[in-house]
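Hi support team,

I've been running sequence recovery on a batch of backbones for a student project. Most finish fine, but this one hangs at about 90% for roughly twenty minutes before it completes. I'm not sure whether the input is malformed or the queue is just slow. I've pasted the structure tokens below so you can try to reproduce it. Let me know if you need the job ID as well.

Thanks,
M.K.
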């Protein structure tokens, strides 16, 4: 079996898709289908944070800093509630929504 290499989004549209995927797969990001058995919170946040680095110039410095901070907060919330039973997961998803708002505003300006 080949090792799992998470896809690193390279455009704002791909980042948008990544955030949507993270919303659906949070808080653990474990793949129940068996297609991606090595997918985890580590691989998903690696892909997200690498994408933010790649898109830094398109995000702008203030948005980049905000997105990194939101990513860190989100991960902490998800790690605090891996069973999705407390408000921590909801707060992590709120971070995702805030990140989507930033991307949406940038895509609106670019389009």
């Amino acid at each position: 079996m080949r090792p799992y290499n998470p896809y690193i989004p390279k455009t704002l549209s791909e980042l948008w898709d990544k955030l949507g995927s993270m919303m659906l797969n949070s808080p653990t990001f474990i793949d129940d289908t068996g297609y991606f058995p090595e997918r985890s919170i580590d691989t998903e946040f690696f892909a997200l944070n690498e994408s933010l680095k790649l898109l830094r110039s398109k995000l702008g410095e203030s948005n980049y800093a905000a997105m990194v901070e939101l990513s860190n907060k989100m991960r902490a919330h998800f790690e605090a509630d891996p069973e999705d039973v407390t408000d921590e997961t909801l707060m992590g998803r709120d971070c995702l929504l805030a990140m989507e708002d930033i991307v949406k505003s940038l895509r609106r300006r670019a389009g």
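--
Follow-up from support: It reproduced on our side and the slowdown came from queue contention, not your input. Residues 12-110 form one domain. No action needed from you.
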